[in-house]
Amino acid sequence: MSKKFVLALDQGTTSSRSILFNQEGKIVAVAQREFKQHYPQPGWVEHDPMGIWESQLSTAKEVLAKAKASPADIAAIGITNQRETTVVWDRKTGAPVYNAIVWQCRRTTDTCEKIQAQGLAAEFKRRTGLVVDAYFSGTKVKWILEHGNGLRDRAARGELCFGTIDSWLLYKLTGVHATDYSNASRTMIFNIHDRQWDSTLLKHLDIPQEILPQAMPSSYVYGTTSVLGGDIPVASLIGDQQSALFGQAAFNLNECKNTYGTGCFLLMNTGERPVESKNGLLTTIAWGLDDKVYYALEGSVFVGGAVIQWLRDGLKLIASASESESVAQEVSDTAGVYIVPAFVGLGAPYWDMRARGLITGLTRGASRAHIVRAALESIAFQSADVVRTMETDTSGRIPQLRVDGGAAANNLLLQTQADLLGSPVVRGQTLETTALGAAFLAGLATGFWPNQDAIRSIWQVDRIFEPSWTPEKRQTALAGWEDAIRRTKSM
Ligand code: ADP
Question: 448 CB contacts (<8 Å, ≥6 apart)?
């Protein structure tokens, strides 16, 4: 077979990356370019859609040049992307009518509060699996249509296209206006049960049907692009967190991944069953594959690796993030010190937006090492809280936690995580799990990999962290954490 590689386009919030993977799922070459962030007002965040496209295209060309590969060597392109970020463009010219409104942007908070005041939040939750929040795309589309001359009329006449970033890149690559179920499930206007745009919710937000992309499976040949010089099928679209779950080969029921970045993102595969959380987690579509749709529960930790940045930049206790590991290892435990980094409130399962951080259990003997260790442990405690919430919501038990992200380089953190969960924590060899997921899905759609078993067999473990604590020790640690949480709460 002449095809040697799959090309993953990984369009993130601050940079666009292109990665070539070979048939063993190994990275052959990477190219990355940052692009400009726009902050037109406090709390507002925008990107220039053309800037996104150009940075993505240039990295794709660069990665081919680096690997001395030609389009004939590429079996397929897979796209994974920052989720929820919203673009509206002219169907004919392809020109954006407004900047992309980024997931972080809070400009539609008022609209969301109105929806809540009208008592519609439960209906949105039931149909979309999401809580009503400015984070998701629906109110961002509404805002764009209301803030340009005649845009809503033009949308109703079918002259405009809405899309999340996957959809925007697909359009630029192929001229096709589509998205995948995983991205659609982050818009707050997509019914995750019947997999259709939801006409009732569209009415609530006054968004015309004509503007919407066609929603399709994540692993699917959407079209062909010739922008790199020869024809290549575009064969997957998938949101970044779901892609990481797939890139971790977490294909089975109750398999779970945690990405340890600035915040932490946990997703648990709930199979073909959407599980409605009773504890504020999101229900989302993981992926569409082989005529089936798989769901996930999603929970996040607001301050994950960011607590290590705070030790470094705020307290100046460590010189680098990686130093946190050796400093924490100077002591064998935290001597009863707990840090709850509720810098922006507490998320799942506590949901207290007014809570603020604290350090408890200080004695005269508390040292820098105890504080650093407690900060590291706080990442593991918060993640364990989300895992336990998922187990409660699904009445299931996670067999193991697969991990990635910058802070997953920290062995002490991962050992603590395993100890707190009482389950193994598994770090894969490829840390670029997000790009790998999109590559796997594109490779499956085009026969580059025959099936999921083939993928599972090339997925390789770097290290497994086995739990080492007795149940009593775990209980004591968790009781201390719960006590610290209690003191953190605003009421
Ligand atoms: P993001 O994608 O959110 O920017 P990354 O996956 O690049 O994040 O991870 C960066 C985060 O991980 C930072 O918050 C940093 O403090 C933390 N981090 C990086 N290396 C380590 C380490 N060795 N130990 C603990 N935390 C780390």
Answer: 3, 6, 23, 75, 76, 442
Q: Is the CB of 405 under 6 A from ligand 1?
A: yes
What is the spatial distance between Cα 244 and Cα 237, in angstroms, rounded to a whole number? 13
Those residues whose C-beta lies under 8 Å from the C-beta of residue 137, and which sit 6 or more positions away, are 84, 85, 86, 162, 164, 186, 187, 188, 189
- DSSP 8-state secondary structure symbol assigned to residue 352: B
Among candidates 9, 63, 395, which has minimal Cα distance to 237? 9
Whether 305 lines ligand 1, by a CB cut-off of 6 Å, is: yes
Asked if residues 205 and 224 have their Cβ atoms less than 8 Å apart, the reply is no
- CB burial of 78-105 (b: ≥16 within 10 Å; e: otherwise) equals bbbbbbbbbbbbebeeeebbbbbbbbbb
Distance CA 382, CA 305 (A): 12
What percent of the chain shows pLDDT beyond 90?
A: 89
**What per-residue confidence (pLDDT) applies to 392?**
95
Q: Whose CA is nearest to atom 13 of ligand 1?
A: 305
Residue 88 DSSP class: E
Cβ of 308 below 6 Å from ligand 1: yes
Task: Say what the pLDDT of residue 124 is.
Answer: 95
Q: How far does residue 469's CA lie from ligand 1's centre (Å)? A: 26
| Any atom of ligand 1 within 6 Å of the Cβ of 326 | no
pLDDT tens string 7-60? 999 999 889 999 999 999 999 999 999 988 899 988 889 999 999 999 999 999
What is the reported pLDDT for 346? 87
Residues in CB range of 228: below 8 A, 6 or more apart: 60, 61, 64, 71, 74
Interatomic CA distance for residues 351 and 264, integer angstroms:
16
CA of 405 to the centre of ligand 1 (A): 7
CB of 104 closer than 6 angstroms to any ligand 1 atom: no
Classify residue 69 by its DSSP letter.
-
Task: Verify cis geometry, omega within 30 degrees of 0, for the bond prior to 349.
Answer: yes
Q: Nearest to residue 487, comparing CAs of 315, 338, 334, 280?
A: 338
Rounded-to-integer distance, Cα 242 and Cα 248, Å: 10
Residue type, 219: S
Best probe residue, ligand 1, of 240, 260, 327, 431 (max atoms within 8 Å of C-beta): 260
> Helix (H, G, I), strand (E, B), or coil: what is residue 436?
helix
Q: Which of the residue ranges 1-5, 111-115, 245-249, 358-362 would you say has the lowest mean pLDDT?
A: 1-5
By the 10 Å C-beta count (0-12 exposed, 13-18 middle, 19+ buried), 317 is classed as middle
The CATH number corresponding to 5-239 among 3.90.110.10, 1.10.260.40, 3.30.420.40, 2.160.10.10 equals: 3.30.420.40
